[in-house]
Amino acid sequence: MIFLIANWVMLIPVACGLAISLVLSSDMVERPQDSWVRLSLRITVWTLLIFALIGFCLRATPLHFFWIIVLLAFASACWIWNYRFARHALMLVVLATRGDTQRLMAVTHYLLSEGRGYWRRKAWRLRAALAASYHWSAAATQAGLATEAQTRLALGLLKHDPGGTQTVRDMLTEGTVQRIALIRMTHRLVAASVSLLALAAFGATTVLLIMPTMGKMAQDYGHMISDRGLWQTLFLDGHVYLWFPLIIWLVVGLISVILLFPRLTRHIPLVWLDMGYYRGLTLQGCACMLRINPRAADVCRAVAEALPIPLWSARLRLAASAIDAGMPAPQALNQQRILHADEARVLALGRTPQAWAWTLEEIARTQRERSMARLDLGSQIASVLIVLISGGLIAVLAVALLGSLTNWVLHVVP
Amino acid sequence: MSDTESSPTAVHTAAAALPASGHLDALRLSLAAQLAPSGWRKSLHWLAQQIAAGCTWEDALHHGDWHPPATLHALVATALASGQPALIVLEVLESRAHTQRSWRTLLSSLAYPLVLLVIALGLTGFTMFMICQAFDSSSVDPLFGIRDIEQVNLVVADLRHTLYGIGITMAWFALLVITIGLLATPLARFNLLGHIPLFGKPFRWLALGDFLARLAVFSRHQATLSPLLQTVAASYGNDPLSMIADRVSLRIAEGMSLHQALHRTILSDRQAGVALTLIDLQTNDFSQSVTEASQLLEQMACQTCERLSFLLPLFVLLLVASLMWATWSVCSLILMAGFSLLSSLI
Fold first, then answer.
1. Residue B265, SS3 per DSSP
2. Contact B272, B204 (CB under 8 A)
3. d(Cα A369, Cα A182) in Å, to the nearest integer?
4. Which of A294, B2, B98, B151 has the fewest CB atoms within 10 Å, counting from its CB?
5. What is the DSSP string of B24-88?
6. What is the mean predicted confidence (pLDDT) over A340-367?
7. Which of residues 240-269 of B touch A (CB under 8 A)?
């Protein structure tokens, strides 16, 4: 009864808060300068928290602890993602200023006066870099806004074209969209892994709840059962079968989570997931640079310098050396596995740097689309496989359990 | 309608006799109808047919057969006063369609977790209700030992309390929604939606982006800021953004800059203020600056939606898993009591 009363009582301040909000916000077109709305909101939130705390103290079950952990995890994830969002949003703001120092300074001034936390710190660093006469793209890198590969590549290329080209800016926007799509696909895998980890834990908990009774029965009545071995395996040594799927899911989940961090994947060539993406990025960088500088070796060096991925930078440097040594550019790029053989043949058909730039752009676009399609399909197949395998495992456990129970009832109960 | 939908040859002949601007306006309105929300399409098509048939804008707007939604009427009337109605309507609807794509992203990021949560809560509630009903109406008591029946009764009482809890929470939620729906003014509803955690920020940013995009469209045809804002306010009809535009216009008349006036409204916050700072630093193209700020806000809103579309389903999945776990642990307790009964029978 106390829970019912608490339920009703705790909703009274919510109703009061709502009524106050409805009255105050019916003609509120500017952000409130007075503190009435904030005060009513705070009273509501604190009352809710106090009642929740009282309820928790009166009756705390493992489920309550689990929910608290989930809520804390959610709050932490939001906090981490706020940083990612702030960094990306600031980069978008810097790009929107189009390199105009006056606008950039105005933005930093605003952030220093009204921003908080991460925004304020980044604005401080950005202003310091601008005051030290850095180019705006270099200032953004110095301020730590360019952590992702495509951002650093685009900003690195801007050094060679101080006015800033629309192509590079488009590349940055497009690359960001693609990166987000990649992250979403990886997230799909992580979500599948985490949800199925929960499913496996759910199955394991179920069997763990039943196991002590069943184990006791196995000891008491085991001699009366024909398939005693199976009974013994399931209910006395069954923990092996429970921990096995749990560990598998844990490993899958961890690998998926590691894939979320571009800083790690950038230095690990065996992560095939992002290889197509980085190749597309490299080729797109080359295409952009070819429009600015027609010399292929210089283009390769500039992109190698701007690209923050050691493997691809090294390949580009080797290709530049080969071009300097007299090898045709398509062949050098093919030799370093930057271009496939058929792509190199298509590139060799071009006679001018503009044609090469256009061809490289098209190859990069095709590569991006292909890698995205493959990744999309791959992540969906992996999700389905994870579902099927874990469903199969749980089904096998359930069938074994029911079979043994039936066997036991048939042999022991009569 | 039958007059306007006469044979194609007749319409073509009539259209050929019209000045080119009539054709162009009709074409623009037809294009606008393709981008418009479904409730506006019929009215826009009708208007396009009238203009193509040689009717003047004033006659078409005052025609007895034209019954557009209030917001569309306000937009067309304002656009007509600005000089190039068809072009303005088309541009406004183009920018609106762009914002609508972001809206759909926002709504789709919320739809899956909400549906999943409601289904999970519904199924859990139904299972609990059925278990409680079964134990209320059955005569299984004599079959259990004293210790077991006490345990089972405790579990069923817990289930009943949980069921009450879910029911009361749902009832309160429904009451809140009905209260807001019935009592709140559009502006109050806008304020409440704009202050919901996680969802509120992108909601406000998209509204601000839409407002700026419309401001940019009208600014190409009107130079002075204060009348421009009044025009934008009129074009929104009864929408809450109309009141906001009026207040911004008032603040500008008091000597405030556009950035400051917009930043004071309920649409803005600290992060949106960064985008708004770009407006006051325009070099020579006001419309371009406002468009850039609008695009920046939309990009920021989309980024937030991306975050929501990842975090919310994961969080809801964990909650649903915990609900399943709780339901199954209750069922397994009853199962254990059943095992105990079997043991006692042997």
1. strand
2. yes
3. 11
4. B2
5. HHHHHHHHHHHHS-HHHHHHHHHHHHHHHTT--HHHHHT-TT----HHHHHHHHHHHHHS-HHHH
6. 87
7. 240, 243-244, 246-247, 264-266, 268-269
Phi first, then psi: what are they for A349, rounded to 5°? -70, -25
Whether residues A26 and B299 touch (CB distance < 8 A) is answered with no
What separation in angstroms does the CA of B333 have from each of B29, B121, B127, B330?
67, 21, 15, 5
> Which residues, listed in sequence order, are joined to residue B265 by a DSSP beta bridge?
A30
CA distance B135 to chain A (A): 20
Q: What is the ipTM of this complex?
A: 0.73
Structure tokens given for A372: 């995205």
Residue in the structure block whose two tokens are 């980069």: A91
Integer-rounded Cα radius of gyration of chain B:
29
Check A67 against B315: CB less than 8 A apart.
no
- Three-state SS at A232: helix
Helix, strand, coil percent values for chain A (each to nearest 5): 80, 0, 15
Q: Which of B169, B278, B318 sits opposite A96 (nearest CB)?
A: B278
Q: Which helix (H) or strand (E) holds A331?
A: helix A329-335
Contact (CB<8Å) A114/B273: yes
> C-alpha angle with apex B30: B28 to B31, nearest 5 degrees?
65
- Chain B residues closer than 8 Å to A67 by CB: 319, 322
Distance from the B232 Cα atom to the nearest Cα atom in chain A, whole angstroms: 16
- Determine, for residues A202 and B325 on separate chains, whether the beta-carbon distance falls below 8 Å: yes
Number of Cβ pairs < 8 A linking chain A and chain B: 183
pLDDT number for residue B207: 93
| Cβ–Cβ gap A107/B278 under 8 Å | yes
Neighbours of A102 (CB within 10 A): 10
Give the pLDDT confidence of B227-282 residue by residue, as tens digits. 888 888 888 888 889 999 999 999 988 888 888 899 989 898 888 888 888 887 65
Residue A271 has pLDDT above 50, yes or no: no
Q: Are B252 and B229 in contact (CB under 8 A)?
A: yes
CA distance linking residue B161 with residue B125, whole number of Å: 11
Determine the Cα–Cα distance for residues B272 and B202; give it in Å rounded to an integer. Answer: 10
Calculate the CA A58 to chain-centre distance. 39
What is the phi/psi pair of residue A172, to 5°?
-65, -45
Residue B288 forms contact with A (CB below 8 Å): no
Decide if A411 contacts A225 (C-beta within 8 A): yes
What region, left, alpha or beta, does residue B83 occupy, with left being phi > 0 and alpha being psi -120 to 50 degrees? left
Collect all residues of chain A within an 8 Å Cβ-Cβ radius of residue B161: 3-4
Contact A110 B332 (CB under 8 A): no
CB B336, CB A405: distance < 8 Å = no
Whole-angstrom distance, CA of residue A359 vs CA of residue A346:
8
The span from the CA of B103 to the CA of B95, in Å, is 12
CA B193 – CA A21 distance, rounded (Å): 12
Assess contact for B323 and B120: CB atoms under 8 A.
yes
* DSSP line for A118-183: HHHHHHHHHHHHHHTT--HHHHHHHTT---SHHHHHHHHHHTTSTT--HHHHHHHHHHHHHHHHHH
Which of B172, B265, B281 faces A29 most closely, judged by CB atoms? Answer: B265
Cα dihedral value A220, A224, A226, A231, nearest 10: -10
What H or E segment, with its residue span, contains residue A23? helix A2-25
Cα separations (Å) of B10 from B5, B6, B29, B51, B57? 10, 7, 20, 15, 21
Sorting pLDDT into bands at 50, 70 and 90, what band is B9?
Answer: very low
Question: Could you give the 3-state DSSP secondary structure of residue A30?
Answer: strand
**pTM higher than 0.90:** no
